[in-house]
Specification:
With about 450 residues, this protein is of the alpha+beta class. It has one domain. Helix content is about 25%, strand content about 20%. The chain contains 11 helices and 13 strands. The strands form 3 sheets. Strands 1, 4, 5, 6, 9, 10, 11, 12 and 13 form a 9-stranded antiparallel beta sheet that branches. A hairpin with a 5-residue loop joins strand 11 and strand 12. Helix 4 runs antiparallel to helix 5. The longest helix has 20 residues. The radius of gyration is 23 Å and the shape is globular. The structure holds the ligand C=CC1=C(C)c2cc3[nH]c(cc4nc(cc5[nH]c(cc1n2)c(C)c5CCC(=O)O)C(CCC(=O)O)=C4C)c(C)c3C=C and fe (ii) ion (FE2). Fe (ii) ion binds next to helix 9. The site of fe (ii) ion (FE2) has 2 residues, from helix 9. This is Deferrochelatase. Keywords: Heme, Iron, Lyase, Metal-binding, Oxidoreductase, Periplasm, Peroxidase, Signal. Involved in the recovery of exogenous heme iron. Extracts iron from heme while preserving the protoporphyrin ring intact. Belongs to the DyP-type peroxidase family. EfeB subfamily. It is found in: Cell envelope; Periplasm.
């Protein structure tokens, strides 16, 4: 029994509370049903049950995690033009908050947790009568480890619940299937996506568990996909270093150069279009696609066919016309596709014709390897993540061009969603989504 006698809602992590939630069934739904706001819950937590968000890391981390840290505050969120680390995951969530105040509380909590997790720090031991402040999977000192957590919103968040319809990003829509898709509804859409990336896998898992622990009644995970990319040697000179995908080809080669800020303003960051709501400036459209690779079939396909399908050499990643990986393909002297087939993946995705520049997208994919299918086939593929300033001009245009490509014999999109990545958090007084909520309030 608890020794508390006041009428305040108890700390969400107390034993009593946990039993209460178990009795209700699903954690988040239970809280929502019980009519408790996350803010009331947060207020009821004793200070020593909450992590210390103050000091920078001073002691050496206990794991192999690194002390690389990306600054949290800025015009844009991290995790978009940030170099792709070895581990990434997308967690699509439904928002359980019941009104705009609850949504604001959720966004403020996310801001506070992500600011802490990406900076790192040490947790207090706390009162043993309460659950520990942290899962403990990284030890007592949390190293930043190159962690980025990128928060994006799905079209469903702009339904009637929060009164945000009037300020929805212009192109944000529910993802619909393309001809080769076999979308599994349980792996599609979501009110919010969290892209969590770091050098080590444990850091991403720790961040997710921390965020979920601090947002009871605010978020419920809908689906999740983890992925990895091989770490590339420093000798790699590409603008966004490529890494081999599970079809054995170098992936990322022809990405737009993330160091070119004018190019990023044109291709990746939203808000340069006067028809978008002003609050979207500094955000980006995020597309997530879970694309299964039929690796058993692929591994039996001739090398020449594989290279013709992509339009690149498998060993070096160079265009079929020759040169080295980062040489820009030129199709002008190959109008009939004698060297690079007209339906090669890279030629369809970017024909390099005048005016096509505006359709370029920033790809940030990870390879995934899940369990085994019932028929014994490996469930492997690409956690395809792309960012663009304009969803229609970017992914949707490029995917329509790719519809029917020869690669489709070896791939099957099975899930994903469209999201809008919120602009960055400027300083300590700002929080994720502040501009959106202020715009909605002034529209009312
Ligand atoms: C709708 C956009 C795209 C989807 C979906 C997509 C799936 C997909 N791609 C690969 C592997 C490679 N893609 C490569 C290049 C490339 N792909 C897209 C777009 C989509 N890919 C673009 C825009 C480009 C760049 C084209 C260019 O500008 O030349 C390459 C070549 C190397 C590289 O540039 O990264 C590979 C390899 C897989 C396996 C896949 C789905 C499973
Ligand atoms: Fe591709």
């Amino acid at each position: 029994m608890s020794d508390r006698s006041d009428n305040m809602p108890r700390c969400p992590f107390s034993l009593d509370r946990r039993r209460f939630l178990q009795g209700l069934g699903a954690t988040g739904t239970g809280i929502a049903m019980a009519g408790l706001s996350t803010s009331a819950w947060a207020r009821s937590c004793p200070a020593d049950a909450m992590p210390d968000t103050g000091p920078e890391v001073t002691s050496a981390p206990t794991s192999t995690a690194t002390t690389d840290a990306y600054p949290f505050h800025g015009t844009h969120q991290q995790g978009i033009v940030t170099p792709r680390p070895a581990n990434g995951m997308i967690v699509a969530c439904d928002v359980l908050a019941r009104d705009r105040d609850g949504l604001e509380q959720l966004l403020r909590t996310l801001t506070e947790r992500i600011a802490f997790l990406t900076r790192g720090g040490t947790y207090p031991q706390g009162d043993p009568r309460y659950p520990p402040a942290d899962s403990g999977i990284l030890g007592p000192t949390i190293a930043p480890d190159g962690l980025t957590v990128t928060v994006s919103l799905g079209a469903s968040l702009f339904d009637a619940r929060f009164g945000l319809a009037d300020v929805k990003p212009r192109h944000l829509q529910r993802m619909t299937g393309f001809p080769n898709d076999a979308l599994d509804p349980s792996r599609c859409h979501g009110d919010m996506s969290l892209q969590i990336c770091a050098h080590t896998h444990d850091t991403t898992v720790h961040a997710l568990r921390d965020i979920l622990k601090h947002t009871p009644g605010g978020l419920m995970v809908r689906w999740k996909q983890e992925g990895t990319v091989p770490v590339m040697p420093p000798s790699d000179t590409g603008p966004t270093p490529s890494a081999r995908n599970y079809l054995g080809f170098r992936d990322g080669t022809a990405n737009p150069d993330t160091a070119d800020t004018a190019l990023m303003d044109a291709l990746v960051w939203t808000g340069h279009d006067s028809e978008e709501p002003a609050w979207t400036r500094g955000g980006s459209y995020q597309v997530v696609r879970l694309i299964r690779n039929f690796v058993e079939r692929w591994d039996r396909a001739p090398l020449a066919e594989q290279e013709a399908i992509f339009g690149r050499r498998k060993d070096s990643g160079a265009p079929l016309a020759g040169g080295t990986e980062y040489d820009i393909p030129d199709y002008s002297d190959d109008p009939d596709g004698q060297v690079t087939p007209l339906d090669a993946h890279i030629r369809l995705a970017n024909p390099r014709t005048p005016g096509f520049e505006k359709h370029r997208i920033l790809r940030r994919p990870f390879n995934y390897s899940n369990a085994v299918e019932a028929n014994g086939q490996l469930d492997m593929g690409l956690l395809f993540i792309v960012y663009q300033a304009d969803l229609e001009a970017g992914f949707i245009t490029v995917q329509k061009r790719l519809n029917g490509e020869p690669l489709e014999e070896y791939i099957k999109p099975v899930g994903g969603g469209y999201f809008f990545t919120l602009p960055g958090v400027i300083d300590e007084n700002d929080f994720l989504g502040r501009g959106l909520l202020e715009a909605a309030a002034s529209h009312a």
